[in-house]
Design goal:
It is built from three helices and four strands, in the order ααββββα. It has a four-stranded antiparallel sheet with strand order 1-2-3-4. A hairpin with a 7-residue loop joins strand 1 and strand 2. It is flat and about 45 Å long. This is Pilin. It holds the Pfam family Pilin.
Length: 137
């Protein structure tokens, strides 16, 4: 599952830079450009990751779908289950008036860790929490 977190890192970097450069308009532009790439899924997938997508509008969450096959050791019932990363600025969803750095809330089918850290904007994934990294439970 750690490869799923790593796969989301490049998208998080893209989105964080876009926000610092151009606020929420930058988030929308970066997400739209990322998703418009015709090779996006092929470039995002690996032995353990099926896909990485970015929502093109608020809350601009990043979704990482896990690849579970008989050959990679992940129980096949988890195939395409997701973890999500949701941007927060000052512990809330970014708005046009938001200032500061992005903190990322990670969630599986649980968001207890993100919520306990005061992050209010969290989109739940579908991966059962017992399989997710502690940061995403």
């Amino acid at each position: 599952m750690s490869e799923g977190v790593i796969a989301g890192s490049s998208a998080k970097g893209l989105m964080s830079e876009a926000f610092q450069t151009d606020g929420t308009a930058g988030l929308t532009a970066a997400a739209t450009a990322y998703m418009a790439n015709p090779n996006q899924k092929a470039e995002a997938s690996s032995k353990f990751v099926d896909d990485v997508t970015i929502a093109t509008d608020t809350p601009w969450n990043i979704t990482v779908a896990i690849k579970a096959t008989a050959g990679n050791g992940i129980p096949t019932g988890l195939n395409t289950q997701t973890i999500t990363f949701t941007p927060n600025v000052q512990n809330a969803a970014p708005t046009a008036a938001s200032k500061g750095a992005i903190d990322w809330a990670c969630a599986s089918d649980s968001n207890q860790t993100a919520t306990s850290r005061g992050l209010a904007s969290v989109v739940a994934g579908t991966l059962p929490a017992k399989y997710a990294p502690a940061e995403c439970r």
